[in-house]
Automatic annotation (TrEMBL):
Localization per Swiss-Prot or TrEMBL: Cell inner membrane
Family, as annotated: Belongs to the FtsA/MreB family.
Organism the protein comes from: Rhizorhabdus wittichii (strain DSM 6014 / CCUG 31198 / JCM 15750 / NBRC 105917 / EY 4224 / RW1)
Gene encoding the protein: ftsA
UniProt protein name: Cell division protein FtsA
Gene3D superfamilies reported in the protein's UniProt record: 3.30.1490.110, 3.30.420.40
GO cellular component, one term: cell division site
Species lineage: Bacteria, Pseudomonadati, Pseudomonadota, Alphaproteobacteria, Sphingomonadales
Signal peptide per UniProt: none
InterPro entries in UniProt: ATPase_NBD, Cell_div_FtsA, FtsA/MreB, SHS2_FtsA
Amino acid sequence: MSQARNDGLITAIDIGSSKISALIARADDQGELEVLGTGQRESRGVRRGYIADMEATEGAIREAVEQAETIARTNIDHVWVSFSAGGLVSDVAQVEVDLGGVQIEQQDIDDLLHQGRRSLNPEGRMVLHAQPTLYTLDGLNGVKNPLGLHADKLGVEIHVIAAEPSPVRNLALCVRSAHLGVRSIVASPIATGASCLTEEDREMGIALVEMGAGVTNVSLFAGGLLVGLASLPMGCADITDDIASAFNIRRAQAERLKCVHGSAQNSPRDNHEMLEIGSPEEVADGAEPPRISRAQLIQVIRQRLDHWMDAVAKALTDLGYVGPVGRQVVLTGGGAELRGIADYAQGVLGRSVRVGRPRTLSGLPDAHSGPGFATLVGLAQVAATNPAELRPFAAEQTVHRTQPMGLVGRLIAAVKSGY
C-alpha cells in the first residue's frame, strides 16, 4: 500500500530528448536529501529539447512518475521540472537607490528588491529565474548582507535567466496533462551546475558543457553566477543516427554499439577487433552476420565528434571564455558517458577537461549516478535549497488542480478522459 500524500517530499522530473526520468526525495532537517524512488522511460515526444508530441510526452512522464511512486511507496502531486531547450539567455541586471547615508534597515532592502522586480525587462521572453545575488554599497561590490550598515547608495545585482515562452508553456502543459502540479521550471544549466560544480568552481570561473541527446548547452559560471549561455542543436543522438546510417542498421542496434563498443579515442588494436552488427532475425535465420571493425565504428563517431566539439569551442570563444589554459571545462550529460571523451575534448579544446558526475545522494541507485542524470539530481538539490526568486513562478506556467490526486486519482482521471 502506498503511503499518504506527503507535501514535504521533493519530486524532480528531467524531460530530455532521449529519456524522461523522475526522482522522489525527502530532505532532513540539515537539508540532506534521501532518495526514496526513481523512474525512467524513453522520451517519445521530445525533439531537440522541444515538445513535438504532447500525448507521447505526457504518457512517458506519467509512466516515469508512477514507477518512482511505486518504488517510494508514496503518491506525489507537484514536481520541479527541468527546461533544456534552446533559446535560454542569461544576464545580470543592476538596480541602485539613494539612501542619504542612513543605516540600512530590512525595509530598505525590501524596497530595493521590489524596484528590481519592477525593472525586469525580458524583451518578450519568459523569466525563469530572477535571483538577487550580491549588493553594492557606495560602489563597493560583493556585499552579501548590507543590513545594519550605513550607505549613501544601495544597489543589488539580479541574475536573470529567460527563455522563449511557448516551449516553456508546452512543457508545463504536458506536466498538467499528466495531472501533476508544477512547483517551478528550472533552467537545465542551473540544475546541472548545482549537482556537478562546487562553490569554488562557480566562484573561480568554469565552463559547463551539457552533452544531451538532442541539445548541447554551453554555460559559463563566474563569481558564483551563471554569466553566459549558448545552446547548440546537436547531441549524442546524432552519433547514433550516423552509426545507423553508415552501417545500415536499426537505431537500437546503433545505440548499443555506441554505448558498449564506442569510444572517442582509437588504438592500434581497434583494427583487429571485429563487431557483429547483424539483427537478431538474421542470426536466428542462421545467416552469417555482417561484421565491422571497431576502428570503423570509432571513425564514424570521431567524424561527428569533430564537428560537435568544434561547435563547442566556437561557443566558448563567442562567450568570451578565453585566457589562461588552466581554466577548466566540465562535460556532463549522456554524451559525457562516451569512453575517452574527456581526453579527446582536452586535445580539441586545449583546456583541462573532466567529466562531471552528480554528487552522491543517500539512496541514489548506481544506475542514476552517471553524468546522464546530473540534471535530475541537481534539480532535486535546487528544490531542497529553494533559492529566493524576485519573480514568482508565472501564472501561465502554474498547474492548478481542484483536488489532490495521487496514483489512484490519476487513473480515475485517465478513465474519465476516454469517455
